[in-house]
Amino acid sequence: MQDSIEITVNEAGTGSPVRGHRTLASAIFSQLRSDIVACRIQPGEKLIVSAISARFDVSLAAVREALSRLVAAGLVVAEDQRGFRASPLSIDDLMDLTHTRIEIESLALRRSITRGGDDWRANVAAAWNELKVVPRTLAHDPGQHNPAWSVMHARFHNTLVSGCGLRWLMEFRDKLYEQSERYRQMAVAIKPEGRNVDDEHRIIVEATLDGDAETACAEMARHIERTATDIAQVYR
Prior knowledge:
64% helix, 2 domains, Arc Repressor Mutant, subunit A, single chain
């Protein structure tokens, strides 16, 4: 089934060329972004403008604009005279990403614990309660991520640091999380021995709600690094 793209229509009932183009580009951007993060588009896969144009039944210009925005987001690379590709993945990049994310996530979590009020703490508890009842993989296919868990997992980690209070820091943090999600999606079959991810999440939440920033940040760093180590082992 062909993906449908909604065109913006003005009050007179006619499509606005400018707004319509921007709406189409944004819709294509969102769909391709989702496909790349979920690895439905494989790392390093060539993105052919004409094929994407045909898939969405939109202009080449709208596709190029969407791809340019994905380049800026770090999800696509533009190659001189060779078009576009989904950004490749590598162990070196994974470890660089992991260490950077630990620094940023810890800073945002520490600020949230210091600044967060009762509403933030209630949101953290609610996000954890919602996450822990959702299975990580599909019941009928344990080799596939459960999309609902991925959504709740992202919401859980975002809620933990949502009291940070620094917009630029959070934007950078969100970009790092999105990049790390690509690696996690590629390693869905990971079943590390001696590890309980739910327990790791619980320990982080308990330290966070107790106001113990040192423990919360240390456990968060350990949690992120263990995931990266597990993924790297699968890659090797």
